[in-house]
Every structure is written in structure tokens, then in C-alpha cells.
Amino acid sequence: MLIFLRHRLAFLATPKTGTTAVEMALRPRAEIIFGKNRKHVTALRFSRKIAPFLEDTFGVRPDAVAIMRDPTDQIASWFRYRGADRLTGTDLSTRGISFDTYVREVISDAPRRAPRSAASSIS
Fold first, then answer.
1. Strand 9-12 and strand 32-33: pairing?
2. What pTM, to 2 d.p., does this model score?
3. Helix ranges (DSSP H) in the chain
4. With contact defined as beta carbons under 8 Å apart, do 50 and 10 qualify?
5. Is residue 40 part of a domain?
6. What is the pLDDT of residues 79-117, one digit of tens each?
7. Element (H, E) at 63
8. Looking at the structure, do residues 7 and 61 belong to the same domain, yes or no?
9. Considering only CA atoms, which of 3, 2, 5, 10 is closest in space to residue 60?
10. Same domain, yes or no, for 59 and 85?
């Protein structure tokens, strides 16, 4: 996440959307840079926690923007990513299941393998 105080703008990073490339290009112009564990923040968390902090601390409540990806394309990307050898044998692995089965899990009420971002954006 990048914060541009003088422009009153917050760029929220969204997993699996190419935001890392955008962040690298815009990073030199940002006044505040969130990385590692704070890079991916939901719009709700930004609105409830970070925006009020920025307003209290800097007197600025930035508008939030984020890149959105076609949901089917994003879920397909997660499916491929989770098919990697390093995840074999974990609850996150998609090895041995069909894409249709994975999609049904993602949109279920209790997704086991769904990425947090896909599951939370659907509900």
C-alpha cells in the first residue's frame, strides 16, 4: 500500500493483480509505504483503521483506489499458484482437484482452499 498525502490518495495492493509493478513505479512519489505484512490491506480495514489514523496524525483522509481483476481470472491464477510442489500436502494445495471443485470451494460458505482475498471479495 502506498500513501500519497499531498494528493490525498491511497493505493491499496490487491493480491494477484499486478499491483507490485505499479507500486514499484509509484514508490518514489509516495510519502508512506507499507510493505511485507502490511502491503495487502482490505478496503474495510483501510477505512476503519488506517484512514482514521492518517486523518488524526496528518490531517488527511485519503481516497482509496485499488486494481480489480476479473474474478474468474483471479481464481484461476490462485488455482495455478496453489498447484505448486511446495504446497503439496497442505490444505492450500489444489493438487488432485479439478478447477470446478476449487471454484465451488471458493464460493462456498466455508471455503477451505480459497484465498482470503477471493473469499472475502465474493461474500
1. unpaired
2. 0.66
3. 19-26, 43-45, 51-58, 71-81, 99-106, 116-122
4. yes
5. yes
6. 999 999 999 988 889 999 999 999 998 888 887 666 654
7. strand 63-66
8. yes
9. 5
10. no
Kindly report which listed range (3-12, 35-44, 74-83) carries the lowest average pLDDT score. Answer: 35-44
Residue 19 lies in a domain: yes
- Give the whole-angstrom CA distance, residue 88 versus residue 92: 8
CA–centroid distance for 15 within its chain: 4
Residue with cell 508512506: 32
**Strand pairing of 32-33 and 2-4?**
antiparallel
**Going by DSSP bridges, is the β-strand pair 63-66/9-12 parallel, antiparallel, or unpaired?**
parallel
* Residues 72 and 106 sit within 8 Å (Cβ to Cβ): no
Rounded distance between C-alpha atoms, residue 76 and residue 15, angstroms: 13
Angle, alpha carbons 63-64-68 (nearest 5°): 145
- Rounded average pLDDT over 50-71: 94
Amino acid identity for residue 95 in this structure: R
